[in-house]
Every structure is written in structure tokens, then in C-alpha cells.
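Batch job 17 of 40 flagged for manual review because the log was empty.
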Amino acid sequence: MSEWCRGASQIQHAIGWKNYWDAGGNSSPDYYNSCANYSSAGVPNNLGGYQYPANGNAYAGIYTFESDVPNVREYIGAQLLTPLVINTKYYFSFKANLALDTNHIFNQAANNLGLLFSTVSYSSFTNPIQTNNFAHIYSAAVITDTANWTTISGSFIADSAYQYIIIGNFFDDANTTFIQMQDTVFYRSAYFYIDDAYVSTDSIPGGIAENDMQGSIITYPNPFTQSTSIEINCNCLSNDSQLTIINVSGIEVKRYMNLSPNMNINRDNLLAGIYFLKLQTDNKIFINKLIIQ
């Protein structure tokens, strides 16, 4: 993220980026930089906690959910160098990391963090973003990792001459899942660091060219009752790759090592419900929803 030395609530000083308004009039995304002259806006220590950038010397910070105030959102947006060309395939990604500060102001995790293409700018409070429960890519899983950057990536065929990208949660509270990560008497909110956004006709750097986030792991049948087949399409398996099953509370309930492109998993003692498959290999993470009946 290109930068000048500025700080919290000043995302406009990240070159090319602006704060985009939500329907409630909220718009104060934060900007953290290693050259900031006060600790709350520094890197790696800052208002949100402690984290090194995924790339470079700076990153953004945004609210994606608050359980105490309905539909509070923060968005960051940028104008593309050139509009997308209709019927052309594009690849896009960004990295996110959950912030949990020691004062327990940022104390929740949430899903639906994603990227939306737009033909109009929402940088004016008179034209806010509406939570229409749609994004071009988003994480259906609750992102709970506070140590590592999670890559959210995908590809699509452009259906409009989009000129802007926006990052945030475009789903309303009724369609957003959250987890309370810390006990608190203060605000209850989910807050994420954002870094390394990318849009191009070339494949995603360090990522997978022909597979979006959901398509890299295919399960069949899904839902299932006793067992299901897993097909891993990313061509990225290594000796260190691992596949985990995570429940909706963010707790790991199963882990598989020594992975193969085609494998079966059994239900064993797992209760009926919604789970998430998380494939982690090298610096890439792919997530898919898993339903047990």
C-alpha cells in the first residue's frame, strides 16, 4: 500500500485510496505506517494491536461489524487505472488480518469481508454504499486468524466497465456471522487490517490463476451425512499443506496432513451443522463451507 506518513482515520493519505461512506454516515478507515510519529498509527504496534504488513510498510484498518450498533461498516476504495473491459477475465485478491487490541475495543471476528467492483465512486456521504448482500468475492468463513494474513482471492469475467474497487463487508447484520473473541465492557466490534490489494488480467501473485476461493476445494456430496469426497484443485500441495475443519465458533475440530488431490473424510463424531474447510499451503489459504446433516 503506497503511503505518506499519516495515521489513524486518514486512509486518504495512502496514495490512490479513499474512505467510502456507509449508509449510516460512517467513514473513518484507519491508516497505519511504520514511519508514523505516534504509536497508535505505527507499524507493527498501533491502535488495533500488533502486526507487520503483508507487503511494504503500511496497511489499512476497517470495521466490518458491530453487534451494538446495527449495520456499522467502514469501506476503503480506489479508482482503477483503467476501467475493466467487458468479457475480459480478471484476477483479484487482497489480504486481511483480524485485529484484537489489548483494550478489548476490537474484540469480535466476522465473515463476509470482501471486494466489490463498482461503476461509481462512493467517496461522498451523499452517495453511500448500501449493504445489498453481494460482493464479487468474500470470505464466507469467519476470519479468526490474528497471527497470519488471510488471502481473499478470485476471478471473474467483467460484465461492466467497472472503474472502482471497494473493500469491506457488503452484507447486512442479518446475513453476517460473528464470534465474540474477547470479553469486554466496551464496544463489541470486528476490525480487520487490510493490505496488498491486486487487480489484473494476469494471475494473482503467489496465488492460483484458474481457481477462485470457493473453487479450489470441491466437496461432494455437500451437505452429507456420513462421508464426503474432497477434491483439491489448486495444484499447490506440499509436504507442509494441511486441511482443517473449523466449526462456526472458530474452533478447529479436525486436522488432516499428508494431503492428496482426491481424498475422503468421514463424519465420525461431528454434530450436524455448518463447518468450514480450511486448506493452508505455503502462504495461501482457501476456505469452503461444509454442511453435515
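Reviewer: the log was empty due to a logging misconfiguration, but the result itself is present. The two ends are 44 Å apart (CA to CA). Unflagging and moving on to job 18.
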